[in-house]
Specification:
Strand 2, helix 5 and strand 3 form a beta-alpha-beta unit. About 35% of the residues lie in helices and about 10% in strands. The protein is α/β, with parallel strands linked by helices.
């Protein structure tokens, strides 16, 4: 229902109004697979998630040469396939791959470490090559943790803390945003991407935003980004010209308030793709 909610909220029309063309490839289906059950009995729907990973990895590699893929979901487990597929495409192009994770959670669990059994908490673990994903398709290209920036963190459990303490992920929690603002750490990361002509995948989870403005998510965490912070991130990303693909995930229309969240996510997408209240031409410094 998530993708259809975006369609109802006018995502294609908003993109077209900005002068872009849109190709809606329709809703996809997971590949039918047979998997060995996880050693963690808590894991939910392993075969279905593995099937989606196969489908979305292939879909990403198919769509990337034709433009900028926007993947509509669905819970964040879909990023296991979208990020892996885009990383494979970047490797084929001989370019470094980077991921910006806009989320309240780090999603770096593995099927073995998750204590909820929800595989939407594992996509970063998968794409960075952590152990425990034997049931999943082999990674065509592993994502370097140094090339990942997580912004908006405010719900990270002890197991994830332990994993992140050993990794080189760029972590920007809400306290840092409160203290420094959101533009400084984002611009620093974008400088890193631009310096090596990298390809950037943005994975935008509804719970990056504060639930008071985006209630349609099953994993609400108070204290998230404001409307203006969300738009500022998207406008800075647009100005950078570095974004090659986008996830819009965790929208549950059954939890929405008259389409409030879906409309906001569409507006944020429009900001990423060039919508502005006023143009801000670069001043001549000569």
């Amino acid at each position: 229902m998530g993708p259809d909610a975006y369609r109802t909220a006018g995502i294609a029309e908003a993109i077209k109004e900005l002068g872009h063309t849109v190709e809606d490839t329709g809703n996809l289906s997971p590949k039918e697979v047979s998997v060995t059950p996880s050693s963690n009995s808590l894991v939910h729907k392993l075969a279905e998630n593995v099937g989606w990973t196969h489908t979305l990895m292939a879909a990403a590699q198919d769509a990337a040469p034709r433009g900028m893929p926007i993947f509509l979901g669905g819970d964040h487990a879909l990023a296991a396939g979208t990020v892996a597929g885009m990383a494979a495409y970047a490797a084929d192009q001989g370019r470094p791959f980077f991921a910006l994770w806009l989320d309240a959670h780090s999603d770096i669990h593995t099927p073995e470490t998750t204590n909820s059994g929800n595989l939407h908490g594992t996509p970063v673990g998968y794409v960075t090559g952590r152990p425990g994903f034997d049931a999943y398709p082999p990674l065509p290209a592993k994502v370097d943790t140094r090339n990942i920036c997580m912004i908006g963190l405010r719900s990270v459990d002890a197991a994830e803390h332990a994993i992140l303490s050993e990794a080189d992920v760029n972590l920007v929690d809400m306290r840092r945003i409160d203290e420094e603002g959101i533009s400084a750490p984002l611009n620093a990361f974008l400088d890193q991407v631009g310096a090596v002509n990298g390809m950037l995948h943005v994975s935008l989870d509804v719970d990056f935003l504060d639930p008071s403005i985006a209630p349609a998510v099953g994993t609400t965490v108070p204290g998230g980004a404001t409307v203006r912070e969300g738009h500022l991130v998207m406008e800075i990303l647009s100005d950078s010209g570095l974004v090659s693909s986008l996830d819009l995930v965790e929208l549950n229309p059954f939890l929405d308030d008259r389409g409030k969240t879906a409309n906001l996510m569409v507006d944020l997408t429009a900001s990423l793709l060039g919508r502005r209240v006023f143009d801000r031409p670069t001043k001549d410094k000569s």
